[in-house]
Design brief:
alpha+beta; 10-stranded antiparallel beta sheet; 3-stranded mixed beta sheet; binds zinc ion
Amino acid sequence: MPELRKDPIVGRWVIISTDRSKRPTDFVRESVKLKGGFCPFCPGHENKTPPEVLAYRPNGAGRDSQGWTVRVVPNKFPALGIEGSLNRSAEGMFDNMNGVGAHEVIIETPDHEATLSTLSEKRIEDVLWAYRDRIIDLKKDKRFKYIMIFKNHGTAAGATLEHAHGQLIALPIVPKHVLEELDGAKQYYGFKERCVFCDIIRQETEAKVRVVSENEGFLTVAPYAPRFPFETWILPKKHESAFENSSSQVYESLARAMKNLLQRTDQVLDNPAYNMVLHSSPVQEGPMDHYHWHLEFMPRLTKIAGFEWGSGFYQNPTPPEEAAKYMREAKIKTAPPAAVAG
Ligand SMILES: [Zn+2]
Ligand SMILES: [Zn+2]
Ligand SMILES: [Zn+2]
């Protein structure tokens, strides 16, 4: 019999198929493949993007020149515009405000053929520093209440350019999904006086069945009530509500956790399209005991259909215990463990 499971943070129910559960090979997958063509993100085309807002350029060359390892530029077709004031107003009962925000692209590598999973851990760490540096800079602008960082890999996941990149959108409001997590986590804290994410880490580490991998700083786990098959979360073991307030060891071990997960995913699911989102606390608020930043990773193997749209219930054909087992058993080449534990 299928099982209904409730997510302990947001209270969302999902239907998990148990008898006819789907294995990795049961999904009709389209591996992400390069198509080629002109690429505005490749070195030498720096003038094809808006002027950069940040770049790491070990050769010390000037702005918008070659030699960078990570480069951040405003999106040429931004979802929101950086200029102007919010001007909240209403049309009768309907609320609106100006579309003020920032929309940036984080170009993760100069190499057109590389992906986040083929980059070295050091290079992934640079990408994480770029996230951090952009958040710290943008949150000085008090109009921005939330900074969402995400990644679409492959056309099936919504990527329009194939060169490896992530995106950042600074918003004048805290988005609904994040509010649901904040509210749920606050309620849990009010009741138990413990962070729900810290409790998840504790219980999953003990139970082991949904653990994909672990290093000294992070636990990679299939959540108890995942919306999507092979949905995976990367959770920092040390409680911290804001991603940008982490120590340098945290970014170093997160880079390793990310590479580890991406390599497993590429092996088990044959380089699938995926979305990744960073959930961190609202940027104008101080540290929170009840909220815990994390990464959510969702390979795109199924489509959202009428039932999901209409109900907010998700139907997941692969139990997370099985997904975690496939992922755990993937044979990947891992770098030797770091000498010092964070
Ligand atoms: Zn390119
Ligand atoms: Zn916590
Ligand atoms: Zn989340």
